[in-house]
Design goal:
By secondary structure, the chain is of the alpha/beta class. Helices cover about 45% and strands about 15% of the residues. It is built from 17 helices and twelve strands. The chain has a nine-stranded mixed beta sheet with strand order 1-2-6-5-4-3-7-8-9, sandwiched between helices. α7 links the parallel β3 and β4. α1 packs across α5 and α7 runs parallel beside α8. The radius of gyration is 21 Å and the shape is globular. About 0% of the residues have low confidence.
Length: about 375
Amino acid sequence: MNNDQEKLNAIALTQLNYFSLAGLLELYRKLGSATAVVEHRNTIQEVIPDASQHLIRALQNLDEPLKRAETELEYDEKHGIQVFTLNDPHYPQRLKDVDDAPLVLFYKGTADFNQSRVIAIVGTRHCTVYGQDIIRKLITDLKTMCPHILIISGLAYGVDINAHRQSLDNRYETIGVLAHGLDRLYPSAHRDTANKMISQGGLITEFLTQTKAEKINFVRRNRIIAGMSDATILIESAKKGGGLITTGIAQSYGRDVFAFPGSVEAPYSAGCNYLIRDNGAGLITGADDLIKAMGWETDAQLKKAQRQGIERQIFPTLSPDEQTIVRALKEENDIQINFLTIRTGLTISKLTALLFELEMKGVVRELAGGVYHLMS
């Protein structure tokens, strides 16, 4: 399959997402590619007998979307924007698993989305000094305890921009999920931070260039923040807000959700407190709580355990899934976790847990960028 043609077709189809994303995803997953969907566009009811008339008509009128896709792809190539379709191995594997995954993503940056540990930090645009202190301490402590974490947020005012800046200061890679195309930046006041993120993380969006930052787009982008992450952490939130929308989406995806409590009289802690009260989030007060809740051990603890003589266990004592991982690494060593999940057929979440067990047994070692090495 021609990769450029697949990108072109995916970009064309993504223009139909506003009213038929579920139908398009069902088609895509049944046929295996955007190119196959376009090739079957006139016989779509043979694939999905109950396809909506809206979807059928839209697929039969792809001339303008395809022209727009050509323009988009030319712009992306000229400006160093990477285009990831749903079947691309570099596409965020955690996001790929959700029911409303974007067919295509546009990206400027250097980070690998499929690292072993990914968290989202979200909250109010009116971040208080209390919230800023929480973010600073959380990220600083995480860096000491768990050096390899990718941090996702939305580049908005308040909690988002504080999370990105603290990540940069602590040499974490950080990704900003945008509610518009990559030909612009909103808010423009965050341009300096965004430019730094491109070389220490990146910017990602599902929206084509010339797409403005409209209100509905922020709701749509929240599902990408939640879907790319193992856990979503709510720092501060009023009774209503985008952070609560994101945590709700994360819950619906079966992902972990945590919140920092605050004073019962603080308006921007009300959302966190209510979420904890209603069992919508686990209560955490710092990095220790998060690491314990996620089952993530620190590199320091791992090294200490290895020094204390945890013996490498022989192959026959490994579980069947662990043996599958070892076989994949024997075929090709030092590969990223996203390629490993494709070769083993294991989900990212299960693979992450198994890799940690293998690391504790001295069988594998994690290198930078989510790369795993089979020990000799």
